[in-house]
């Protein structure tokens, strides 16, 4: 029986960019607005955060923003992240603090998914940080330009401690880590069994848009060009959804996000 009681999608920022970043070799020249999401999952045995958004400091400080979001690398500049979209602010609206988070699960280590780690630690969050071992190895190698090495350090410059994982596993009854590589070397999605209604399958960046799922289009950013691996992961998620009755949630689809309950209303 699932231990999940409810969950919340958390809008931690937004990004405007060329659609081809989300749909491989398609949509070039079309600008889209994409939500940057994290998900808070409440269970009878603690709270889990799937992803943590961007580092607010790298966006709000002009010097830091110019350094990290160099125009020659980030053609569209830095994402937009309002003060109210910082994770501690979301948690406060639920009567919680970062200390109330027990597990942080990172689907991958790109800046818009792992950047919030430093602020959560600064606010007293002592949660275990789960990440795939291969993801961390690639991140440390510098081979993936969408990873900011600074996001993996605390304020003192010491490496954050991760609970390294290999492959699929259950975090607890009703919360399952699902391998969906292609966007990154060891990208992970998450299947969540809710107490009422159909399960939710968080695609993460295995599927930015509903279009990725409907037409089996790889995301536009791929690890070493592994398009077929990314498409295989989309098909795997669709097969799992059919088997479990789950609804797949694309990760950067603004129209889909706007169809969800408005925070702080919970999804159950």
UniProtKB/TrEMBL annotation:
Cofactor(s) named in the record: Zn(2+)
Entry's EC annotation: 3.1.1.81
Pfam families from the UniProt entry: Lactamase_B
Top-level lineage group: Bacteria
GO molecular function: acyl-L-homoserine-lactone lactonohydrolase activity; metal ion binding
Positions of the Metallo-beta-lactamase domain: 35-252
InterPro entries: MBL_superfamily_lactonases, Metallo-B-lactamas, RibonucZ/Hydroxyglut_hydro
Keyword list, A-Z: Hydrolase, Metal-binding, Zinc
Class of the enzyme per the UniProt entry, highest EC level: hydrolase
Entry-linked Gene3D superfamilies: Ribonuclease Z/Hydroxyacylglutathione hydrolase-like (3.60.15.10)
Signal sequence region: none
Family (UniProt): Belongs to the metallo-beta-lactamase superfamily.
Identification of the protein by name: N-acyl homoserine lactonase
């Amino acid at each position: 029986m699932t231990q999940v009681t409810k969950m919340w999608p958390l809008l931690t920022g937004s990004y405007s960019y060329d659609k081809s970043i989300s749909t491989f070799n398609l949509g070039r020249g079309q600008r889209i607005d994409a939500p940057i999401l994290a998900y808070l999952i409440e269970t009878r045995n603690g709270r889990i955060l799937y992803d943590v958004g961007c580092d607010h400091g790298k966006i709000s400080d002009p010097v830091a923003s110019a350094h990290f979001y160099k125009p020659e690398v980030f053609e569209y500049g830095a994402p937009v992240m309002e003060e109210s979209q910082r994770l501690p602010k979301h948690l406060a609206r639920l009567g919680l603090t970062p200390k109330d988070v027990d597990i942080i699960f990172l689907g991958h280590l790109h800046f818009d998914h792992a950047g919030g780690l430093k602020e959560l630690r600064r606010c007293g969050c002592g949660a275990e940080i789960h990440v795939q071992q291969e993801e961390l190895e690639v991140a440390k190698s510098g081979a993936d330009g969408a990873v900011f090495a600074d996001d993996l350090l605390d304020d003192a410059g010491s490496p954050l401690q991760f609970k390294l994982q290999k492959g699929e596993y259950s975090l607890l009854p009703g919360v399952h880590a699902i391998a969906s590589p292609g966007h990154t070397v060891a990208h992970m999605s998450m299947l969540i069994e809710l107490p009422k209604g159909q399960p939710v399958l968080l695609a993460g960046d295995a599927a930015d848009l509903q279009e990725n799922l409907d037409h089996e289009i790889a995301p536009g950013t791929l690890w070493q060009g592994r398009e077929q691996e990314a498409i295989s992961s989309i098909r795997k998620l669709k097969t799992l959804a059919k088997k479990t009755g789950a609804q797949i949630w694309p990760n950067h689809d603004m129209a889909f996000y706007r169809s969800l309950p408005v925070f702080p209303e919970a999804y159950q």
